[in-house]
Amino acid sequence: MKKTTGTRLHLVALTVTALTLLAGCAEPGAAEWVAPDSKAAAAASPTGPARPKAVTSACKILTADAVIDLLGGTSSTKLKAREAGVEDLGEGAKRYTCGYGRDGAEPFALSVTERPDPDGTVVESIDQIADYADGQVKRITGLGDGIDGLTYVKDNLRGAAVAVPYQMQLRIAVFIGPQQLPHDKLVEVVQHLVTRL
Predict the structure, then answer these.
(1) Kind of pairing between the strands at 80-90 and 105-116
(2) What distance in Å separates the CA atoms of residue 61 and residue 51, rounded to the nearest whole number?
(3) How many helices (H) and strands (E) are present in the chain, helices listed first?
């Protein structure tokens, strides 16, 4: 039971970290998401690094250019990624957080946690995020063997979470943006993250 409670607190803290990044930097209207034209969305082809042996940065896992491509920005869309640093969570776990935005507002955030997971708690970890989201949760299927993910709406924000095992580690990523961000765009973000975690 101690491990479950610790994991739950850890996952809630992960989501709260991303929410804090958003709340601290948002201005009225700053979290607006505007759907791209279909030509720009069709031309998008996210790029980024392959799966690292160790996580060292959330911004390297999901670059600002990848966020633009995945969410359907145009050639004039500009976002900057800002690494918030590393947080030592104890027991070998670390969290990295990246905010994405411009002009002082960061309507998008990614938190990536890497922790030892010899017991394979992928589903349990995502179930706990679903419990925290409390309601508007949609499971994402077809992510691959041993990988679990979901999207959710909470506190006027829409988020996506994915848990990916890597050797004896568990990598959990939570991406958060404005509530009007479409579910299918968050699924694309999760699919991209699976290849990078």
Answers:
(1) unpaired
(2) 8
(3) 6, 7
**Which domain does 48 fall in, by range?**
2-196
Q: Mention every residue, 6+ apart, whose C-beta is less than 8 A from residue 161.
A: 15, 126, 129, 149, 150, 151, 152, 172, 173, 174, 175, 190
Amino acid code (one letter) for 179:
Q
| Element (DSSP H or E) covering residue 87 | strand 80-90
Q: What is the pLDDT of residues 148-189, one digit of tens each?
A: 999 999 999 999 999 999 999 999 999 999 999 999 999 999
Please state the rounded mean pLDDT for residues 53-58.
Answer: 91
The pTM assigned to this predicted structure is 0.78
Could you give the C-alpha distances from 191 to 21, 45, 131, 186, in angstroms and in order?
23, 13, 22, 9
3-state SS assignment for residue 29? coil
- Vertex 153, ends 129 and 12: CA angle to 5°? 30
* Count of domains forming the chain: 1
Tokens of 188: 């694309």
Q: Which amino acid is at 124?
A: E
**Tell me: the pLDDT tens digits for 112-153?**
999 999 788 999 999 999 999 887 999 999 999 999 999 999
Which amino acid is residue 22, in one-letter code?
L
User: Do the bridges between strand 80-90 and strand 157-166 make them parallel or antiparallel, or are there none, so unpaired?
Assistant: unpaired
